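Retro notes (design track)

What went well: tokenization of the new backbones is finally stable.
What didn't: we kept losing track of which sequence belonged to which structure.
Fix going forward: every design gets posted as structure first, then sequence, in one message. First example under the new rule, 198 residues:
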């Protein structure tokens, strides 16, 4: 009898504890409070119905840069269609890759950023293509710089080299911020998939 008397309070404590655990799980996960704790998955909740502010800023800024690139792209295309009259013969090999990467930035940037600002998830793959086009464009610019330095009549000097490095670093920083914003939007849209248009 003594063992039974000590066992009853223990059972009551276990029942109270299990009820408390179920209440906590129900409050945190909004799931059935009587589910087994082993199969309950706690999913973090997004507090805002809007994407993070960094996403809005970077997508809008990227969209602006894509618009500003259009006149330079049009000029490059006209020069190339005219037989490359505006190009130094030593850099003709870089003309087509430069135009191709700029075209990718403009097309994917305008479409992707517009869709992302409208909270449409189809903008995500287009934004990824924009990132790849930008990386390729940076590679082409480095190629042009190295090609220019290899010329016997190169007169760029230290100021030109410093400017090239500064521009490349600036583009890489912007690209890193854009990738971070795109990752944030992807995470946000995954938790808001039911509310976003497809």
């Amino acid at each position: 009898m003594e063992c039974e008397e000590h066992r009853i309070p223990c059972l009551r404590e276990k029942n109270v504890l299990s009820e408390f655990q179920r209440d906590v799980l129900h409050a945190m996960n909004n799931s059935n409070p009587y589910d087994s704790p082993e199969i309950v998955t706690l999913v973090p909740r997004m507090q805002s119905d809007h994407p993070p502010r960094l996403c809005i800023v970077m997508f809008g800024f990227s969209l602006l840069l894509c618009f500003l690139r259009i006149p330079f792209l049009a000029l490059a295309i006209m020069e190339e269609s005219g037989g490359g009259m505006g190009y130094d013969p030593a850099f003709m090999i870089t003309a087509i890759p430069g135009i191709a990467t700029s075209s990718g930035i403009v097309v994917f940037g305008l479409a992707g950023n517009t869709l992302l600002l409208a909270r449409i998830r189809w903008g995500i793959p287009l934004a990824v293509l924009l990132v790849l086009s930008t990386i390729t464009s940076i590679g082409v610019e480095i190629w042009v710089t190295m090609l220019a330095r290899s010329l016997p009549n190169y007169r760029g000097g230290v100021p030109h080299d410093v400017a090239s490095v500064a521009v490349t670093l600036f583009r890489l920083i912007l690209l890193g911020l854009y990738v971070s914003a795109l990752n944030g939007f992807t995470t946000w849209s995954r938790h808001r998939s039911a509310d976003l248009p497809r």
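Added context from the reviewer: DSSP finds five helices and no strands in the chain.
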